[in-house]
Amino acid sequence: MTVTAPKGFRASGVAAGLKASGGPDVALVVNDGPDATVAGVFTGNRVKAAPVLWSQQVLKGGVIRAVVLNSGGANACTGTQGFRDTHATAEHVASVLRGGPKPLLIGAGDVAVCSTGLIGELLPMDKLLPGVTAAVKQLAPNGGGKAAEAIMTTDTVAKNVHVEREGWSVGGIAKGAGMLAPALATMLVVLTTDAVAGSEALDTALREATRVTFDRIDADGCMSTNDTVLLLASGASDVQPDQEELTAAVTAACHDLAQQLIADAEGATKHITIEVLGAASEADAVEVGRTVARNNLVKTALFGNDPNWGRILAAVGTTSAAFTPDRVDVGVNGVWVCRGGAAAEDRSKVDLRGRDVTIQVHLHEGEMDATIWTTDLSHAYVHENSAYST
CA-CA to 370 of 20 to 30 Å: which in 28, 104, 172, 331? Predict the structure, then answer.
């Protein structure tokens, strides 16, 4: 049920000493082929970490044989030395794989690099490179679970997925628990498939999948410098699904991982689903959902089990979406507390004692809908993020 479930992939996760905890912190995913096509999406932040700049560059060729990932340091805002370190990491991965027990004739340009952790500090290369060597030695067809553990930062659980289809499948691992926001999140995701698919087909599938999954989780409105989602295809199944089938399977895998990410969001006590209905356009629906998700007054109200629909309606009013205020309905956990922009059912009927909360906003402007997933704003979130670097 992980990134090595599809045929043609090996992975590993080792402790190299990058984390003060001594836990696993270097992961490696290798595509043994016969194909090595790839697609990727990256952070929308203009401040991009060195590994993002490197991986964007090497993905232009549409071929990747390996992905090396580290936690314990983001290698972001580290200048030219940070980029040189990323290049050196890719070179080392390629060199060790060429001389490994199952040699792969690859170069640095066949290796994507991902990092996660504190921004602004150089990686300890004297620890990272030996960690890469150890990761190559421990590569295994069942090593996906260890790789998922090695990329965790503030995550409390490892995140894995496997979506099976007839004769082929999609697998994946992910990390992320904070800074979850549109245009990706503080996430590293490696997806694999043993389907036969060209890089263009993979790109189409991945962009459609991320548009309705990773791009619609928003824990705190903050965007990272390192976000990376990669999709690798080995072709080892000899099955070539059509574009619709490929996109559906990749979307299912991304949705599963996205829900795992939001469920593990830092300090969260509520898993909040915001359904925007009856919008004039999908863009309007998404804007309304994101705005409600990012509203601190809404988030703190839900942390306090208060179905304060006025805060929700006020948040909707700050958007550019098409709507008439006295036609908007708001429901919380199945109770329509607001109808036509005014009080409706008694808010005391809303049961917020559980973890799952559903907010529905009906704009009555058209037929387009969208769903955004978020969390509440708790004491634990503030504490964790106020002490993150210390």
Answer: 172
CA distances from 301 to 61, 304, 346, 352, 386 (A): 48, 5, 17, 11, 21
Characterise 135 by phi-psi region: left (phi > 0), alpha (psi -120 to 50), beta (else): alpha
User: For residue range 72-127, what is the model confidence (pLDDT) as tens digits?
Assistant: 999 999 999 999 999 999 999 999 999 988 899 999 999 999 999 999 999 999 99
The structure tokens listed for 246 are 């490929």
CA count, 13 A, side-chain hemisphere, 32:
16
| Tokens linked to 114 | 């991902």
pLDDT at 182: 46
Report if pTM > 0.70: yes
Which of 78, 186, 210, 374 is catalytic? The answer is 186
Rounded CA-CA distance 147/130 in Å is 16
Q: Alpha-carbon distance 332 to 359, whole Å?
A: 5
Catalytic site includes residue 273: no
| Contacts for 200 with CB less than 8 Å, ≥ 6 apart | 62
| 160-171 pLDDT tens trace | 999 999 999 999
CA distance linking residue 344 with residue 243, whole number of Å: 46
